Amino acid sequence: MKIIKKNVQFLTNTEAKNLLEKLGDLDESVMRYCTNDMAYDKIEIKKAELKEIGLYEFEIIQLLNLLPKQILDLQLVIEEMEERFDEFSLDKILNIFQD
């Protein structure tokens, strides 16, 4: 890895502290955004269940991030949803997220 020294400048301690505090706030914001109600140990189980239904991996990841609650949520993520899945399969997908 090559580190490019772009925008290098000297900082006072106060400026450095302020910058680090802002980065800390960013870290907290990212952690809050990435936190959902699903337990980490359930993710692999849900991935397997969704893959078994016939979803693509990128759809599975998006659905795990979105935690869909209704058919409209699925429609936003699943390509050609009406052609690929019947109503029973879509209900099965939603039920996976209700547990």
The overall pLDDT average reads: 86
Based on the coordinates given, report the CATH architecture of the domain at 40-96: Up-down Bundle
Instruction: Flag low-confidence runs.
Output: none
Largest sheet: none
CATH superfamily of the domain at 40-96, called what? RNA Polymerase II, Rpb4 subunit
Structural class: mainly alpha
Q: How much of the residues is beta strand, in percent? A: under 5%
* CATH C-level category of the domain at 40-96: Mainly Alpha
Element order: H for helix, E for strand: HHHHHH
CATH topology (level 3) name of the domain at 40-96: Growth Hormone, Chain: A
Give the % helix. 55-70%
In whole angstroms, the N-to-C terminal distance is 43 Å
Cα-atom radius of gyration: 21 Å
How large is the count of helical segments? 6
GO biological process, one term: DNA-templated transcription initiation
InterPro entries: HRDC-like_sf, Rpb4/RPC9, Rpb4/RPC9_sf
GO cellular component, one term: nucleus
GO molecular function, one term: nucleotide binding
